[in-house]
């Protein structure tokens, strides 16, 4: 049986989840005490950015009269991501986990942009994707990797 | 589309995917959609051609790491232009490019190139909601992400802090 395409609400809901997971991951990285000053500021900022993006995406849906029922509980303690964060031995390893998350976010946004039909949501999602690209660049620089 | 990597998509220019109607829940583009998207594509090609030309010109006045970086960026822009041309061909449009090719003024440096990249990213951002072919949106979004990385690399080359905001 062919799977039906996701609705606009489902696509945006998926992006909101992406942002909530990243907010959690960055906040967890900050709280773990393995990040130095600059990296800590970076991750704390990224956590806040993700909360801001999630809020904007939610507002975008509400403007269309398609509000969500409120955030579902986000339980990540047992997921591989939590193990990756906990298992990162030092700052560089932790930043690499966060960089991997940024790459996944960029891919998810790129795919989602093909599924969105409402111009306002497309603009918001594309701009948010650009924010993730900036964050990935900042992480690569912090790691001493080439940005391009 | 799912399963295609960014690099593969940029290499293939979304070839074969748009006309197959894969990768999006939107309607398969009709003639007017294709014509509209072709116009946007040609503008985007012109932008990429201008960027590549700018970086090649800039490289002639640079040496060392700065030169290596801008040549790398020029190659990226040429790859973007080819991916967009390929997508244009899929839409049945003339991939020769049209529109104004903007280049930096002679004597410009890396600092001006940062603004140039920001303008390129802003142009892609403005185009995206107007693109009707779903797969083309994904291609342009990946190009947008690379333009953002270019600006970050230029900032780093000049010893400037990276910019990272919630939104572009």
Structure report:
The complex is a heterodimer of chains A (148) and B (168). With 148 residues, chain A is mostly helical. Chain A has helices at residues 8-31, 37-63, 80-87, 91-115, 119-143. Helices cover 74% and strands 0% of the residues of chain A. With 168 residues, chain B is mostly helical. Chain B has a single domain (30-157), classed as Ferritin (Up-down Bundle), CATH 1.20.1260. Chain B is globular. Chain A binds chain B through residues 5-6, 42, 45-46, 48-50, 52-53, 56, 106-107, 109-111, 113-117, 119-120, 122-124, 126-138, 141, 146-148, and chain B through 1-2, 6, 23-26, 69, 72-73, 76, 121, 124-125, 128-130, 134-135, 137-138, 141-142, 144-146, 148-150, 152-153, 156, 162-168.
How much of the residues of chain A is beta strand, in percent? Answer: under 5%
Under the CATH scheme, which architecture of chain B would be assigned? Answer: Up-down Bundle
What's the tally of helices of chain A? Answer: 5
Report Rg of chain B. Answer: 16 Å
Q: Main sheet of chain A, how many strands, which sense, barrel?
A: none
| Euclidean distance between termini CA atoms of chain B | 25 Å
CATH topology of chain B: Ferritin
Detail the poorly predicted runs of chain B. Answer: 15-28
Number of DSSP E strands of chain A: 0
Structural class of chain B: mainly alpha
Portion of residues within helices of chain A: over 70%
> Which percent band covers the strand fraction of chain B?
under 5%
Pairing-aware structural class of the strands and helices of chain A?
mainly alpha
Largest two-chain interface: A-B, 43 and 39 residues
Could you state the oligomeric state of the chains shown? heterodimer
> What value does the average pLDDT of chain B take?
82
Helix-strand pattern of chain A, N to C? HHHHH
| Distance N to C terminus of chain A | 42 Å
